[in-house]
């Protein structure tokens, strides 16, 4: 198994949970992911210390607003077991959980958010495998290569 640092982009609606909320609490479980591919990224791909681009989706200006890091190994999402939760899954049991999460820890808020429109201007350099700007891609957890991470964060300094 590789111990190389990996990078990710995780989307959150700022009305539900923003980079400011993460800054306030420090570390937060990334609950409510109900897409198998995104779940698999968290369960099988993420390691403590991996870098996370914190992306505000469904916002006035969608884009990258901060940096976080993976703060735990994957564990079952407790919201799947709570009947009162909007993320309840009647097919999930404690013995055979279906949904997993990681804790995400705050690193910093960007000095200047990087809007999606600006990210799209760099689509050629980011490559066609960069799922955020691919048509029809709606995952809330996406892998980011080290080169994409470096390019995206360089956009913050150009403002």
From TrEMBL:
<dbReference type="InterPro" id="IPR015947">
    <property type="entry name" value="PUA-like_sf"/>
</dbReference>
<dbReference type="InterPro" id="IPR052181">
    <property type="entry name" value="5hmC_binding"/>
</dbReference>
<feature type="domain" description="EVE">
    <location>
        <begin position="6"/>
        <end position="154"/>
    </location>
</feature>
<protein>
    <submittedName>
        <fullName>EVE domain-containing protein</fullName>
    </submittedName>
</protein>
<dbReference type="InterPro" id="IPR002740">
    <property type="entry name" value="EVE_domain"/>
</dbReference>
<dbReference type="InterPro" id="IPR047197">
    <property type="entry name" value="THYN1-like_EVE"/>
</dbReference>
<dbReference type="Pfam" id="PF01878">
    <property type="entry name" value="EVE"/>
</dbReference>
